Amino acid sequence: MKTGVLQFPGSCDEIDALQAVRRVGDAVLLWHRDRDLQDVDAIIVPGGFSYGDYLRVGAIARFSPVMESVLEFAADGGLVLGICNGFQVLCEAGLLPGALLPNTSLRFVSRQVELEVVTADTPFTSACSPGRRLSIPAKHTTGRFWAPEEQLDALEAGGQVVLRYAEGHCFNGSARNIAGVCNESGNVMGLMPHPEHAVDGLVGGSADGLKLLESMARTVGARVAA
Amino acid sequence: MGPEDRPVVRARVLIRPKSGILDPQGIAVQRALPALGFTGVSNVHVGRLVELDVEDPAQLDDMCRRLLANPLIEDYEIVAS
User: Fold this and answer.
1) Residue B2 pLDDT more than 70?
2) Under 8 Å between Cβ of A161 and A178
3) Would you list the domain boundaries of chain A?
4) How many CB pairs under 8 A join A and B?
5) pTM of the model
6) Is A101–B72 a contact, with Cβ atoms under 8 angstroms apart?
7) What ipTM goes with this model?
């Protein structure tokens, strides 16, 4: 799997994402002005504060040249994973449902959280069994997932709620403890916690983040073989 | 006539969180006011103000829907003078 990691002015987790995904394949950085996605098999929209998060988190990054190519890539079924600010960008771009609002505490929170895999048959969680717990760090001020009630019902019914904060771990006030969602066709996913920071037990609290990246590599491998 | 001389309309766009969505900033302000002796204040909400000069005010609504506000979570109000 060759993964393209986007880099916007104000991104700050793109190098961790690059290093993390290199554990399961090749990876390149894609600058926000690039339109050429260099034949990658997957895209990671990393965390940070793209374009300073001016106006609204993720609002300006969605109009960057690289995002135009990512929209086409996603429409063709390409795998796109948005992490933290990347999740916010994908929601603003309309690739994912809902929106991210300020944490109910209005505070920046950085802590290790326990996540529960709700839907395991996605390209991002196929290496996990349903109900598996993942220990991954989260760090954000604007991570309260919100969508209208009827949309939340539809997301749950359609298996689009991929990850939930385990009981006692939802510090940001997200609706129904949702930590990660995917689009209807399952090829675009976003989550607030940072799997790219949890790829080495020595420094990431666990290596559970690799499970998501391994799932993506497995999906891409199966596609190539088919 | 240079581009800077074209007639423009001064517009203000008021953006506020949709009612029904928890607004922790509004709550924080509402709780702070009584500490200063202000009583009888309710329904406090904190939003954004965008001021802009536009040549074509007819575009404002589209600007709001596509960039200035996120219609899923925010209401906007255009005040053109």
Assistant:
1) no
2) yes
3) 2-225
4) 30
5) 0.94
6) no
7) 0.85
